[in-house]
Design a protein that fits this description.
77% of the residues lie in helices and 0% in strands. The protein starts with 5 loop residues before the first helix and ends with a helix. It has one domain. Helix 2 runs antiparallel to helix 6, helix 3 runs antiparallel to helix 6 and helix 5 runs antiparallel to helix 6.
Length: 106
Amino acid sequence: MAQFSVNDQIELTAGMTDQQRFAFQMQYAAARRDRILMLVVSFFLGALGVDRFLLGDIGLGVLKLLTGGLFGVLWLIDLFLIMGRTDRYNWTRAQQIALAVRAGAF
């Protein structure tokens, strides 16, 4: 899945007031991860698990940190998969933020 579309964003914010939509936009802009930046981080710091830490995958981040990217194998695999993982992270965060905004947490 590529970065989610305007239709997906409209679906997430359906039924929200303008103030809630604004809160959603502000929170999501602060929480989202850029796909290209994550690819660069994965290339240079992926063997240390930094890419996984940034996406909230602490377990694999620690494994990569302690084993040097599982001796380079996980690092190489993540170079190909990091953009998709970033998209999933962004979509999940958007859903969580939309629920929190609807519940009045923001």
